[in-house]
Task: structure prediction
Amino acid sequence: MLKQGLHQKLLQKLSPQQIQFIKLLQIPTTALEARIQEELEENPALMEAGTLAEEQPEGPYADEPTEAEPDYEQNKDLSLDEYVNQQEDYAYKTRQATDPNEERYETPMVQGYSMYDELRRQLSMKVLDDHAWMIAEQIIGNIDEDGYFRRPIASITDDLAFRYSYTVQDAEVEAVLHLVQTLDPPGIAARDLQECLSLQLQRRPSSPEVVLARSIVDTYFDEFTKKHLDKIQERTGAGSALFKEAYTLITRLNPKPGGTAAVGISQIITPDYIVRVVDGEVDVKLNQKNAPELRVNRRYIRMLGDMDRADKKKMSTADKETLSFVKQKIEAAHWFIEAIQQRQLTLLRTMVAIIDKQREFFVNEDDEGCLRPMILKDIADEIGMDISTVSRVASSKYVQTEYGIYPLKFFFSEGVTTQSGDEVSTREIKKVLQALIDEEDRLKPLSDDRLTEMLAEKGYDIARRTVAKYREQLNIPVARLRKSL
Result:
C-alpha cells in the first residue's frame, strides 16, 4: 500500500562551483590555457584583463568614463545586487604575485613526420604497379608503433576484398611484405621478435660472428631467450671467443625498430611550478604563463545595473529573459574566476608543504638519498584538505628545479625502517638495489636471496619477496635472464 509522507534527510552534494574547481584542479598547466580559452568563448561576460574589448567598450557605454577598480578582497562578502547598486565594476582578478621580469616558460612546438610517412616516402622510390602499391599501403597502415606487422596475411586479403572490393592472393601479400621489410630501419614490418632480429642480421656484411648469430637466431632462438647459453654453444660447436662476439652482436640489435623510425611530434612538458634555491632558502612560484588575469566584462555590469533599476512590472518577457541571461553569465564568470583563484592557491599550498617535507632534497642538489618517506595523507593533513584533493594536485603536474624537471608524484613514496631505527624512502632502497645489480658479475648475477642479504648488510632489513617486487618495479629481470658472457 502506497503512502505519502514528509521525511527529513541530510545529503551531501557537490555544488556546481565545487565540481568546476575539481575539474580545474586536476588538469595540468598545458591544458589550463585551453580550458580558459574555452570559457572565454562560451561566456561573453568573462574576459581577459587588458584586452581591447575591455579598454574600449562598445554600444551605449562606449563614451562612459572608466571607473576605479573595486577591491574584491574588501568587498568579497557583498552580494551581486549590492555590487550593482553601488554602481561599481564587478571585477575579480586571478591575483597571484607575478614578477613582470619573470622568465616566460613557452611551450615549443616540434614539427616532424611520422614513421608511416617515412615508409611511404621510401616506398615511392620503388618501382611498383598500382596493384602492389595498394597492398603495400595496407601493410604499412597495419604496422604498430614498435615497427611490427602482427596481423595475419589472410586478414590483409580480407580487408582488401571487403573494404575495397580488391581481390588478391596470400602469396602476393607475402611478396609485398618482404619488399616492405627491405625498407629502413632494418627489422621494420617483422611479424615477431625472431624475424625482426633475423632481418637486421641479413643486412650485416657476412663474417664468422654474423653467420653464427644468424644460426642462433634462426635455429636456437627459444634457448637464446631462456639464456641457455652453454647449451647453444655446445650445439653450435663454436669457440668461446666467437660465441661471445655473436652473442654481443645479437644483444645490440634493435628489438623495436619502430622507435627509431618514428619522427613524429615529441612530448613537451611545461612545468607547473618553478623552484629555486636562493641563499639556502627554497623559493617556489607557480608558472603564470597559462593563468591570465580574468575579470567580468564592464558592459555586462552596466547593462545589469540599468535593468536592475528599471521597473520590473513594465518589463517585457524578452527583457526579463535578457536580465536572467546577464545575471547567469555574470555569476558563471564569477564562479570560474573563483575556481581559478582557488586552484592556484591550492597548488601553491600543496607545493609549499611538499618542500617543507623534502627540503633536504632541494637544497642538496637533488640527492635522491635525501628524499624522506611521504604519502598523500601527510600533505593532506599538513594543508588541511582531503587526500583526494592532494591526489588531483599531484596528478599530471611537474616541478622545474635547477637540476631538472620532476613529476610531482616523484616526491611521494612509502617508508621502511632500517636496522638503526631510521625511516628511509623506498626510493632510496631501490636506488641501492639498482646499484648492486649494476655492479654485479654478469657471469654470475645476484639472486634475489643474495640481494636480500646484501641489503640487510647495508641496514635495509626487508623480505625477499619485497626485493623481488622492487626489482620488477625497476624493470630488472631475474638473475638467469641477466646472465651474459
In short: The first strand starts at residue 46 and ends at 48. Residues 317-357 form the longest helix (41 residues). DSSP finds 24 helices and eight strands in the chain. Residues 52-112, 261-266 have pLDDT under 50 and may be disordered.
